[in-house]
Specification:
4 helices; about 25% helix; 7-stranded mixed β-sheet; about 140 residues; alpha/beta
Length: about 140
Amino acid sequence: MEFVTNSPEQTECLGAALAAVLQPGTVIAFTGDLGAGKTAFTRGLAKGLGATERVTSPTYTIVNEYVSGKMPLFHFDMYRLGSSDELFDIGWEDYLLRGGVCAVEWSENVADALEESITVHIEKLGDNTRKITIEGGQGLELAGI
């Protein structure tokens, strides 16, 4: 599925729409250049899951947890990781077992650990315009978009 958004708010709305159809244990693998909108999309996921915490990029912390919604959202930034072995060293399997959604920025750095994920590729077309491609997920339908 391809979508074009023309503002960060529209990107967030698309994230919220995706959140409405996610099940516990879902992994979302983001790809896209720096500044493409991965964190904006994740803010939408958090809103769609009912999280009330402020969503920020986990660049320096590796993972931010948002647990106030109907299910937890674990927001990972894999930019600094060199392999999926390092992902498992930080407790990846524990996060998968906690019944939340794992949103993984820079997923290409740990692609071999994310085989069953939904892929969200965000391409910057202009200052605020993004082409967002969502692939994977059994029976994934985004109603109302």
